[in-house]
Amino acid sequence: MPETSHRTDCRQNAPRRGLALATATLAMGLALSAPASASTPPTDGVARHPQAVTAAQQQAVLNYWTPDRIAALTEPSSPDQPPKSGPDGAPWTGSDTLARTVGRLFFTDHGEDASCTATVVTSANRSTVVTGGHCVNSPNLLGEDNRWTTNVMFVPGYRDGRAPYGKFVGRLGVADTTWLHYDAIDSRTYDGHDQAFVVLGTDARGRAVQDLVGAAQRIAFDRPGDRTVHEFGYPRSASDPARGGLPEYTGARLAHCTGPAREDPGTPDFPEPRGEWGTACVMGGGASGGPRMSGFDPVSGLGTAVGVNTHSAFLTAAGEVCADTDTPTCQRHLVGPQFTSTITRPLYEAAQHAD
After folding, report:
1. 210 within 8 A of 126, measured Cβ to Cβ
2. Do 242 and 293 meet the contact criterion of CB atoms below 8 Å apart?
3. Which of 43, 50, 106, 134 has most Cβ atoms within 10 angstroms of its Cβ?
4. Dihedral of alpha carbons 27, 32, 33, 35, sign
């Protein structure tokens, strides 16, 4: 894939293991979720996959995510790194309502533990979060062998290893059928489909995530992309070396970018399908699946999710592809698909009405 655009793949930050350990971890992960054969055959362009359905399966996922496993997905911080913030990347220090509705999504992917970002959105079942497609179903590092992720657990308001609003196990993954055929060689064909929903189980007291956090973000389809947006995520790296090692770029805390969204045109040799938008942002892997929000009110902490973060593009302020990524006029943009009635709405409806 050309340098001017590459996927912000949460798997890039997963710890690498030897083959034997990876195989053992994969076997454990598969044991903790419903078998792949239990997936409902898609008839409407929507793929539905049972994750941890029974109480025993859900408890097994909670047991799987020990403090040590979670800590392994948090990069060491650098106490000597002086804070640096800007519109293209800063810790979120605003409304607690926003922080409650965005959280880390932990899962196992082809035997590797990994994390993305997900957001609680308004839903009939009050248990639905939106995230990236590759956070729910993904190929291996060679771009082959697509599989559903396992051991899926969402922690709203995650901060410094704490789960102030509890932990919620994924019970149903919902993705677009086209995404399930993702091919790394022809990845741009699939970029617009890199979005998914997870329906969560309740907590130990039977409470839905939206009830427990007390809020949810709106979701909308077919909104114009060229607007000022706010993007949120739990990145485990930063493209700006001056910010590497700060807590908001280690996976420990929520990060935030804001600015005018630009559409990623791709390159002449590899044109990007229309509808991939995002603003200048230094958030790296782990921010995948985080929300791109329009009409966001920093005081109330509420806005409208109009897309998700999935990959990066190097663009000028005018939205043109950078001829040289090292020039001061070139900025890394965190982009992803804009939600549409054609792709997103069927996924959302299937997720929000799932029992």
Report:
1. yes
2. no
3. 134
4. positive
Q: Which residues contact 255 (CB under 8 A, 6 or more apart)?
A: 89, 90, 91, 92, 232, 233, 234, 235, 248, 249, 283, 287
Average pLDDT, the chain: 86
The CA distance from 148 to 177, in Å, is 12
Higher pLDDT, 113 or 318: 113
For 234-284, the pLDDT digits (tens) are 999 999 999 999 999 999 999 999 999 999 887 656 555 678 999 999 999
The token pair that represents 335 in the structure block: 């982009």
Single-letter amino acid code for the residue at 248: E
Distance CA 355, CA 353 (A): 6
User: What distance in Å separates the CA atoms of residue 140 and residue 111, rounded to the nearest whole number?
Assistant: 10
Locus of tokens 């044109």: 271
Residue pair 264/333 in contact by the 8 Å Cβ criterion: yes
Q: Which pTM does this prediction carry?
A: 0.87
pLDDT in tens, 167-191: 999 999 999 999 998 877 777 788 8
Helix (H) or strand (E) run with residue 96 in it: helix 96-101
- Strand blocks (E) in 201-340: 218-219, 228-233, 255-260, 262-263, 276-280, 291-297, 302-308, 311-315, 331-337
Please, are residues 235 and 249 in contact by the beta-carbon 8 Å criterion?
A: yes
According to DSSP, the β-strands at 311-315 and 5-7 are: antiparallel
Across-strand partners of 333? 280, 313
Distances (CA, A) of 155 to 107, 296, 338: 11, 22, 25
d(CA 285, CA 250): 10
What is the total residue count of the chain?
355
Give the CA angle between residues 15, 16, 18 to the nearest 5°.
140
The rounded distance, in Å, linking the Cα atoms of 112 and 114 is: 6
Q: For the packed helices 19-31 and 55-64, what is the interaxial angle rounded to 10 degrees? A: 150
CB 196 within 8 A of CB 174: yes
Instruction: Name the DSSP class of 70.
Output: H
Cα–Cα distance, 278 to 322 (Å, whole number): 15
